[in-house]
Design brief:
One of its GO terms (biological process) is lipid catabolic process. The protein is α/β, with parallel strands linked by helices. The chain has 2 domains: about 160 residues, Rossmann fold; about 90 residues, PLAT/LH2 domain (Lipoxygenase-1, Sandwich), CATH 2.60.60. The protein has a 5-stranded mixed beta sheet with strand order 1-2-3-5-4. Strands 7, 8, 9 and 11 form a 4-stranded antiparallel beta sheet that branches. A hairpin with a 2-residue loop joins strand 7 and strand 8. The radius of gyration is 21 Å and the shape is elongated. The mean pLDDT is about 90.
Length: about 260
């Protein structure tokens, strides 16, 4: 039984006979997309974990792409009716859009078990555990026997618009060169199933022999990595033409460790 942002008003804090609960089915998975307090934030979705596994995409309160201005939201690519609904209840309605995308992407929407969204963002809950990460949405029941705890909260990030799934990678770059410079470092991943755009690993002072780590949520699952593209840039014109390289680049795939 899959709960798509189950309702908060009149249901949160009520007995389990009234609201959705893990006792309602052999396996209950829940997607929380609008769990901010109803007052004053107008959150429509229930906040506590209530299923066997509970997914909190983007932290479960504010969904990317829902903060568009009113006109761009209402004059939506899917038509005025769809756009108007999204303007009124965009976060709440993301739950069914994620679910429908999950049918098309059986390898997408990996939920990382974590104590909080902040810890997930910092990379503390990376990579997936030994048994793998459950997939939010249609294929969540693949992992129905993996978690035996009372409640399991799972976190992930999504894209702003369809297609919504993202795949998480940890990238560490160790720089080489002779002198420090100011600028930024970008990396793109290439693999057997596609390649990503460039993602910024660090910006500011770049010091040779230092290592810089970033967690990226890529819009492509590249599969087995075949190549990594490294690019660095000065923040301003430097007449000495400093040289900077990558001594090593390490990529860890969240899905398979």
């Amino acid at each position: 039984l899959s709960g798509l942002d189950p309702a908060q008003p009149y249901f949160q804090g009520t007995p389990i006979e009234v609201r959705l609960d893990k006792t309602d089915a052999d396996f209950v998975d829940v997607i929380h997309t609008d769990s901010a307090p109803t007052i004053p934030n107008l959150g429509f979705g229930i906040r506590p974990a209530i299923g066997h596994i509970d997914f909190y995409p983007n932290g479960g309160e504010e969904m990317p792409g829902c903060d568009k201005n009113a006109l761009s939201q209402i004059v939506d690519i899917d038509g005025i009716w769809e756009g108007t609904r999204d303007f009124v209840a965009c976060n709440h309605l993301r739950s069914y859009k994620y679910y429908s995308d999950s049918i098309i992407y059986p390898d997408g929407f990996l939920g990382y078990p974590c104590a909080s969204y902040d810890l997930f963002q910092e990379g503390n809950c990376f990579p997936c555990p030994e048994g793998g990460c459950p997939n939010m949405g249609h294929y969540a029941d693949r992992h129905k026997d993996q978690f035996k705890n009372d409640f399991v909260k799972l976190y992930l990030n999504t894209a702003e618009t369809k297609d919504f799934p993202l795949w998480r990678y940890k990238i560490t770059v160790t720089l080489s060169g002779k002198s420090k410079v100011r600028g930024y470092v970008n990396v793109a991943l290439y693999g057997e199933d596609g390649n990503t755009k460039q993602y910024q690993i660090t910006k500011g002072t770049l010091r040779p022999d230092n290592s810089y780590t970033a967690y990226i949520d890529a819009d492509v699952n590249v599969g087995d990595i075949t190549k990594v593209k490294f690019l660095w840039n000065n923040n301003w014109i430097n007449p000495t033409f400093p040289k900077l390289g990558a001594e090593t680049i390490t990529v860890e795939v969240g899905e398979n460790r």
